[in-house]
TrEMBL record:
Every ParB-like N-terminal domain range: 43-132
Similarity annotation: Belongs to the ParB family.
Region (Disordered): 227-247
Protein name according to UniProt: Chromosome partitioning protein, ParB family
Classification via InterPro entries: Chromosome_partition/occlusion (IPR050336), HTH_ParB/Spo0J (IPR041468), ParB/RepB/Spo0J (IPR004437), ParB/Sulfiredoxin_sf (IPR036086), ParB_dimer_C (IPR057240), ParB_N (IPR003115)
Keywords from the named record: Chromosome partition, DNA-binding
Single GO term (MF): DNA binding
NCBIfam families named in the record: parB_part (TIGR00180)
Species of the source: Sphingomonas palmae
General function of this protein: Involved in chromosome partition. Localize to both poles of the predivisional cell following completion of DNA replication. Binds to the DNA origin of replication.
Superkingdom of source: Bacteria
Length: 304
């Protein structure tokens, strides 16, 4: 196993470590907002001395909502301080980039901050999970955040789901969106397609063609699901008939259910084929080396 993989393995699951860090951020913000003696931990820092994290998971900021926040800040100021860490000759944002951006639009010269001394790894993980918990990411950004936490930091889907208060199937389903063509992912980011549409489209034989129909015709999620299902049936009808299962074997619907169950568990596309004799194969489709490394860890019992 590579040195990087070994490092990720030694970091272990999310556990108490990251949970405690996230608790620190939440406590700092609550205490700073509440006032009193806790205000002593808050300081005013020049907006120009603060820089965003270059690997911030949130890439898309809604302009209308940002303007609304800027107007509110111009009138009332920043109620909830920004969490930063010392970085170079200034400070880097750990949590609160949206507030910082809005403060610039409101033409504030200084903003209230809480300074914490976090490592590079801690900062990135907090930024990822904090955005997920506050539901400030679109579906693709959230999926990319899960992918990084699973692959780069060696966390399992089960542990990650507990920390972000989501179901494991939610994490797995979002990860599958990253298998969509980049053009469709961009449509999810800009809001042309919802997460429900994207989940239906990913099962279609021709995702790009179905995505175009959804946008041009304004199809609902249910309509999209039906079209994707009909497309799969037509594709199966045109394909050569697979070997019939042996007498007593479960139906193809049961096999499909098992494929879905394994896909939810691993966050990867799973295909099962079998012969009348009872033998068969299980194929896992991965798109990155990080995903392959994750599968190897799961199969070897590491990172569980």
């Amino acid at each position: 196993m590579s040195e990087a993989a070994a490092t990720r393995r030694n970091r272990g699951g999310l556990g108490r470590g990251l949970g405690a860090l996230l608790g620190d951020v939440a406590r700092d913000e609550r205490e700073a907002t509440a006032g009193g003696e806790a205000r002593a931990s808050v300081r005013m820092i020049s907006v120009g001395a603060i820089s965003p994290h270059p690997e911030q998971p949130r890439r898309h900021f809604d302009e209308t909502k940002l303007e609304e926040l800027a107007a509110s800040i111009a009138e009332r100021g920043i109620i909830q301080p920004i969490v930063v860490r010392p970085h170079g000759h200034g400070y880097q944002i750990v949590a609160g980039e949206r507030r910082w951006r809005a403060a610039q639009r409101a033409r504030l010269h200084e903003v209230p901050v809480v300074v914490r001394d976090y490592s590079d790894s801690d900062t990135l993980q907090i930024a990822l999970v904090e955005n997920i918990q506050r539901q400030e990411l679109n579906a693709i950004e959230e999926a990319e955040a899960y992918k990084r936490l699973l692959g780069e930091f060696g966390h399992t889907q089960e542990a990650l789901a507990k920390v972000v208060h989501k179901s494991r199937s939610h994490v797995a389903n979002l990860l599958r969106l990253l298998d969509l063509p980049q053009t469709i992912q961009s449509q999810v980011v800009d809001g042309s397609l919802s997460m429900g549409h994207a989940r239906a489209i990913i099962t279609a034989p021709d995702p790009a063609a179905l995505a175009s129909q959804v946008v041009t015709k304004g199809l609902s999620v249910r309509q999209t699901e039906r079209l994707a299902s009909n497309g799969k049936k037509r594709t199966k009808a045109a394909a050569p008939s697979p070997a019939k299962p042996a007498i007593g074997d479960t139906s193809s619907a049961d096999i499909a259910a098992l494929e879905n169950q394994l896909a939810d568990l691993l966050g990867l596309k799973v295909r099962i084929s079998f012969t009348p004799a009872g033998s068969g194969t299980i194929a896992l489709d991965y798109s990155t080396l990080d995903q392959l490394d994750m599968v190897c860890q799961r199969l070897s019992g590491e990172g569980i």
